[in-house]
Amino acid sequence: MELSVYKIDGTESGKKVTLDPGIFGIEPNDHAIYLDVKQYLANQRQGTHKTKEKWEVNYSTKKVIRQKGSGGARHGSIKANIYVGGGRTFGPRPRDYSFKLNKKLKQLARFSALSYKVKEQSLTIVENFNLETPKTKEFIKIIDGLKVNARKVLFVLPENMNNIYLSSRNIENVKVITVNELSTYDVVNSTSLIFIDGVQDILQGQYGNN
Questions:
Q1: What is the pTM of this model?
Q2: Which domains does the chain show, CATH number per domain?
């Protein structure tokens, strides 16, 4: 499986790279992707939601009306949930939403997401480059030159390149990460996946023998 490497102006460099079919060419497993994305989103939740229950509301404890003879229902406290300002019954409490997944399943999910991008022809490999200074206009020019679907662009770097990251910060729908930060969620949440040449070698070095 070969892909052409492009220059930053969008023209082909003449170089081709070979992708590992065990990473970029497997039969995608949708359920593995679902579980990995579900775990990622669950782990982002703080779980600090909280409402006051009856015993926590700071109201009078005086009995609202007498027990019998009113002709209405019995009421023992203004803190009850049926009163405005009363406590909430079975309200949310702080909790941990995170859960664990098998390492092999997460790996399968990542391979599946990458394979989808290759099948959809949404993976572009760009020759290695860097910017001398942070320039948002220059980075926009690179994205436009590559003629990718700019709705959601994920730019993956082989290592931390601060000037590229700083150049992308103010561009809507463009995310720049290093290969070590790559997640299944990031891949499936993008419409265009751009690798700087060398990222595919790092991935194949990490997972090629698994």
A1: 0.83
A2: 2-29+102-207 (3.40.1370.10)
